[in-house]
Write a structure and sequence with these properties.
2 domains, 5-stranded mixed sheet, 20% strand, D-Maltodextrin-Binding Protein, domain 2, alpha/beta, binds glutamic acid
C-alpha cells in the first residue's frame, strides 16, 4: 500500500521538474525576445531588421552635415546621406530611416538609452568617448577653428586673452579651447544655432568649433570669416553602443563599399564642394 502511494508522488516530482525546466527555457527565450533597450542581448542589426527601420541620431542645426529646413521639415546633409546609405545596406531601402535630433551633449546618453541605433553627428573620435561608445572608422577629417566678424582684430588663439568665446556644450571644441586659450572666457550653448545667434547678437567675439561647421555658418552670412587655422584634429566617426562589434563591422563595410564605388566621393563633392584630397 505504501509503495503504491509513493509511486504517484515520485511521478509528480519527475513531472514537476520536467515542467519547471521546460518553463525556465521558455522564460529565457521570451525575455530576450521581449526586451528592447540597450541591455538587449540582441545586436543592433537584428533590432533594426525586426523594427524595419534604422534610427539615426543626427544634428538638426549644422549646415552641410545635418540641418533641418524649417519650411519643408526635411533634414539634409552629409551625415544624413550616410544614414540613408546605411539603411539601404541593412534593409535594402534608403527611406527606411528615422532621423532623431541629437546635440553634442545628448548624443551619447541617447545612444546608451536605446533611443537611437547610431550617432552620425559630426562626432570626433576621442579616447575619452571610446570609454563610453565604440566608433566606426574615420569618415571625415575636420579641425577646430574660430569664426569672427570680418572686421575683428582676432587673428587666432593668441588673440583670445579676455575675449568671450562661444562654444557648444558637450563638444570637444569647448574642452579644447579651455586648454588652448586658458585666458579666454568660454560661454557654452546647447546647440550651434544658439551659439551662432549669440555671436551675431554680440554676446561674444568669436565662435569656436570644427572648421567645416564654421564654413556652413559663414555660407549663410558672409559678414563672418574663419581665422587661426586648424588648431586641433577632429576625425569624425559614427558611434555605436559599446561591445556591438557586428554593427561596427557592418558600418565599416558600408564605408569601404562607399569609398570603393565612388559614392563617398560623390557625397563629399555634393556637400563640401570638392572630392576628398
Ligand atoms: N567634432 C566636435 C565634437 O565632436 C565638434 C562638433 C560637435 O559638437 O558635434 O565635439
Amino acid at each position: 500500500m505504501k509503495n503504491v502511494l509513493k509511486w504517484p508522488s515520485f511521478m509528480l516530482v519527475l513531472i514537476l521538474s520536467l515542467v519547471l525546466s521546460g518553463c525556465s527555457t521558455g522564460e529565457e527565450s521570451s525575455s530576450s525576445g521581449g526586451s528592447g533597450g540597450s541591455t538587449d542581448a540582441k545586436g543592433t542589426i537584428e533590432q533594426i531588421k525586426e523594427r524595419g527601420k534604422l534610427i539615426a541620431g543626427v544634428k538638426y542645426d549644422t549646415k552641410l552635415f545635418g540641418l533641418k529646413d524649417p519650411a519643408s521639415g526635411e533634414v539634409e546633409g552629409f551625415d544624413i546621406d550616410i544614414a540613408k546609405a546605411l539603411a539601404k545596406q541593412i534593409l535594402g531601402d534608403e527611406t527606411k530611416v528615422e532621423l532623431k535630433e541629437v546635440t553634442s551633449k545628448t548624443r551619447i546618453p541617447m545612444l546608451q538609452n536605446g533611443d537611437i541605433d547610431i550617432i552620425i553627428a559630426t562626432m570626433t573620435i576621442t579616447d575619452e568617448r571610446k570609454e563610453q561608445v565604440d566608433f566606426s572608422g574615420v569618415y571625415f577629417e575636420a579641425g577646430q577653428s574660430l569664426l569672427v566678424k570680418n572686421d575683428s582684430a582676432i587673428t587666432g588663439l593668441e588673440s583670445l586673452g579676455g575675449v568671450k568665446v562661444l562654444a557648444v556644450k558637450g563638444s570637444t571644441s569647448a574642452q579644447n579651447i579651455r586648454e588652448k586659450a586658458p585666458d579666454a572666457e568660454v560661454l557654452e550653448f546647447d546647440n550651434y544655432q544658439d551659439a551662432f545667434t549669440a555671436l551675431k547678437a554680440g554676446k561674444g567675439e568669436a565662435l569656436t568649433t570644427d572648421n567645416i561647421i564654421l564654413i556652413g555658418m559663414q555660407q549663410t552670412d558672409n559678414n563672418y570669416k574663419l581665422v587661426g587655422g586648424n588648431f586641433t584634429s577632429e576625425p569624425y566617426g559614427m558611434a555605436i553602443r559599446k561591445g556591438d562589434t557586428a554593427f561596427v563591422e557592418e558600418v565599416n563595410s558600408l564605408l569601404k563599399s562607399m569609398k570603393d564605388s565612388g559614392e563617398y566621393d560623390t557625397l563629399h563633392e555634393k556637400w563640401l564642394g570638392s572630392k576628398p584630397e
